[in-house]
Amino acid sequence: MKILALVGTNAKFSYNRILLRYMKKHFRQMADIEIQEIDKLPAFSVDTPLSEQTEVWKLKQKVKTADGIIFSTPEYDHGIPAALKSTVEWLSYHTNVLKHKPTMVVGVSYGRQASARSQVQMRQILMSPDCDTNLLPGNEVLIGNASHSFSKDGRLVNDQMRDNLEECFTHFVEYIQVFEKVNKEGLDMSVKQPTISEAYINFPTGRLTLKEVQQIFSTIPFELDLIDSTDHFAWYSDKPNREHVRNVASLGETVQECHPPKAVPVVMKIINSFRNGEQDVVTRPLWMNGHRSLIQYYALRDVNGHYLGTIEFTGSVEYILNLFENGAWSTDGNTGASKHEDSADNQVAEESVDASTGASESNDNDDTTTPSTTVTAPVSTTETESTDATTGASDSGSVDANDEEADATTGASEN
Prior knowledge:
Layout: E1 2-7, H1 15-26, E2 32-36, H2 54-65, E3 68-72, H3 82-92, E4 102-108, H4 116-126, E5 134-135, E6 141-143, H5 146-149, H6 159-192, H7 194-198, E7 200-203, E8 206-209, H8 210-219, E9 223-228, E10 233-236, H9 264-275, E11 281-288, E12 291-301, E13 307-316, H10 318-325, H11 381-384
Parallel strand pairs: 1-2, 1-3, 3-4, 4-5, 4-6
Antiparallel strand pairs: 7-8, 9-10, 9-13, 11-12, 12-13
InterPro entries: Flavoprotein-like_sf (IPR029039), FMN_Rdtase-like_dom (IPR005025), NAD(P)H-dep_reductase (IPR050712)
Organism: Limosilactobacillus rudii
GO cellular component, one term: cytosol
């Protein structure tokens, strides 16, 4: 279980930070708690330029993938700190990352009443329509007299407060598990519906069941992602060991939400060029995770040419390139003669067999030959094409492999 714990202040020293560090260590057998600072976030403003919201975007991604969120708040002037209010504004303005997310409120202060008033305010905020979290009811963690409640090495030494913390956190873990079970049962029901597995689609070239369609996307050695015509992340293929890791929590997000802010202008330029009919494909060969990969963006259009969205096609081409570099295409397709006559491995050319019919491309008629296919090594676009300085896209739609890669659905640099 992954829990994100937010330090509710930008102060360099805070007992709320000490509390979360204690919880991370004390409850390590129950959950993986990641402590998140908020001091690098800009003050909330609707006019903050997108280019200055990188830290905001990173925080949203962590909140989105966490199973639960803990807000630890001190109390300033009977309320929560301005930095914490600003953080919640970022997490609730034009985004749903907090929606239905299991949340818990804790707090430490110097006074005898602990952070009671600020926690009441924090709970009201988290239950507001814009946040709409699944807030753990009751279970108040109120730690006062902070300087006497913690030891110098950060341990919570007040027995009564420690027992209460343990009870409340246990309830929070159980609370998260309830929602996880509900979500899993809902997913299982959708998968087990017989009407879905038995339904089929008639294509011009044949018929496929929905189950077959799903498994085809899971089996092909390349991954696909779709940004729909309204610029929302709509779908990704459920392929094991993806180059670009996706999460269902990102589905339905806008291009702006699911991309790092600095990548949004580049991604939108590609999408708009597809929507306006200026391009149909953008290609980016690059190194990913230690191997050579190919990323291609395609304009998805209906039979009448109307724009339906942008498809991102990603996959490792290491295996194909190794075949080429090891001479897999060294046989002349017309004559069957090896280009390296002195190589023993190429003395006997294997016949090419149609996978669907089993028929060899060669036959008894010596006058019939199959056209040869020419394979050329990749050439840098910087040497052959004029490249757009803004997006890195060449006139033919390809992109220099040395340019920084912006993933069409995440915008994350691969460098």
